[in-house]
Design brief:
By secondary structure, this protein is mainly α. Helices cover 70% and strands 5% of the residues. The chain starts with a helix and ends with a helix. It binds zinc ion (ZN).
Length: 170
């Protein structure tokens, strides 16, 4: 019982910290400027902004089981705390989509920016992917960066939706 309570408190603390971190780096204007310059990516960028604000799409949320203090991924079986982060950063079932996204980033961004991102903690890498807050990107590079991460995360979510649909039907 005590152990459970401690775990619950830790989870709350973690969640708060996570939200704070995202909030301090949250500049949605940056995202809307990207969509103003590239109207065709509006839908995927909107998905990114939602995620940045903590709104995981219902189709993705249904791919995890809520165990009160943590979630279990229906697709890979892992325990997790942050649903969006699990599928974007860790889930083994979305490796292919994740690798494709990273390859595209590697091909389109300056090597210095990629080094900067790779030297961050996992938590901060996730925040950078959502926010585009990577220092010294030109406007054009920022557009490319957010277009790639928004598209990559959208594809990851589509994969999760499809895999979950197969699971539910089995
Ligand atoms: Zn998983």
């Amino acid at each position: 019982m005590v152990k459970e309570q401690i775990h619950q408190i830790q989870t709350e603390v973690w969640k708060e910290k996570h939200l704070q971190k995202i909030h301090t780096s949250l500049k949605p204007l940056q995202h809307w400027s990207v969509t103003r310059r590239n109207p065709c990516v509006r839908e995927i960028i909107a998905n990114l902004v939602n995620l940045l604000c903590g709104n995981v799409p219902a189709l993705v949320l249904s791919a995890v089981i809520d165990n009160d203090t943590e979630y279990v991924c229906r697709v890979c079986g892992e325990y997790l705390l942050d649903v969006g982060k699990h599928f974007v950063m860790n889930c083994s079932a979305t490796n292919l989509e994740r690798n494709t996204m990273w390859d595209k980033l590697m091909d389109s961004l300056p090597i210095q920016s990629m080094c900067y991102i790779h030297n961050l903690e996992e938590e901060d890498i996730y925040t950078v992917l959502l926010s585009g807050n990577c220092p010294s990107l030109t406007t054009e590079e920022l557009d490319r960066f957010l277009t790639i991460t928004a598209g990559g995360i959208f594809n990851i979510f589509l994969k999760v939706r499809d895999l979950n649909a197969i699971q539910v039907n089995e």
